[in-house]
Write a structure and sequence with these properties.
The chain is mainly α. The chain is 71% helix and 0% strand.
């Protein structure tokens, strides 16, 4: 298989598998720590109107979903990639960071969570996924 095709498959697999981990943790989190009474999780306006009811515990699974989804996506991408493993892993982190930025703009969250999420859950986790996968250093 051509290295280009293998790298493209690495990006797609990292993105899809990372997104699946993210969504799985969000769904598990809703059963472990349900939203406060009166919030409809399918209605964005309900979130915005009742934001004041959320406690710090309600942000645990969203953070874990973002961080572990990115970590697993970068890990998978690194394992599959034929070359440019670090760049591909960090690219996965950047894709997930863009998703995190869009969520911050759509869903209200406290400043401490926004900063923690955007600073820790994406690029550092992508780099950690790359390292855990045994990514090799390449000169470009």
């Amino acid at each position: 298989m051509s290295p280009l095709i293998k790298n493209l498959l690495a990006i797609i697999a990292g993105w899809v598998i990372g997104a699946a981990v993210n969504m799985g943790l969000i769904l598990v989190g809703q059963t472990v720590i349900p939203e406060p009474e009166g919030i409809d999780p399918a209605n964005m306006e309900s979130f915005k109107e009742n934001f004041h009811l959320f406690e710090p515990k309600h942000f645990l699974f969203p953070f874990l979903a973002h961080a572990l989804g990115t970590l697993v996506g970068a890990y998978v991408a690194t394992k599959i990639a034929a070359s440019y493993q670090r760049n591909i892993a960090l690219g996965i982190g950047f894709l997930f960071l863009l998703g995190g930025i869009s969520m911050v703009m759509m869903v209200p969250s406290p400043t401490w969570f926004t900063l923690l999420d955007l600073v820790v859950a994406y690029i550092p986790m992508a780099f950690l996924g790359y390292k855990l996968a045994g990514g090799r250093k390449e000169s470009v």
